[in-house]
Amino acid sequence: MTQWREDQPIFLQIRQRMIEMILSGVIKEGDALPSVRQVSTDLSVNPLTVTKSYQSLVDMGTVEKRRGMGMYVTEGARAALLTHERDKFLTEDWPGIAARISALGLTAEDLLKDGDQQ
């Protein structure tokens, strides 16, 4: 059973899973996304939730609808998503991480050490 985070809408979490699958190469440029029906069944969510997540990928320009055929990853989608995810990390995630590092008094050397050496 899928565990959903409470702090983010489910459609965004599904979109993020699709983004991760594209970035990792599980779904390649030119490949079809899994059908809305299949994803909704696999994740036990309403098909409209999956449709909304897919539409947000279309709005980002990384997925295109092909009438009667489904949704397909566009050429250049991986590079665009990589840029998007890097920017999102630097603006949303990194400031909190940097503040935590500073609060703990960690140095770059501390961060680069192998975890077994600590």
TrEMBL record:
It comes from Pelagibacterium luteolum. GO terms for molecular function: DNA binding; DNA-binding transcription factor activity. Keywords: DNA-binding, Transcription, Transcription regulation. The keyword Cytoplasm does not apply. Residues 8-76 form the HTH gntR-type domain. It comes from the Bacteria. This is GntR family transcriptional regulator. Pfam families: GntR (PF00392). Transmembrane segments: none annotated.
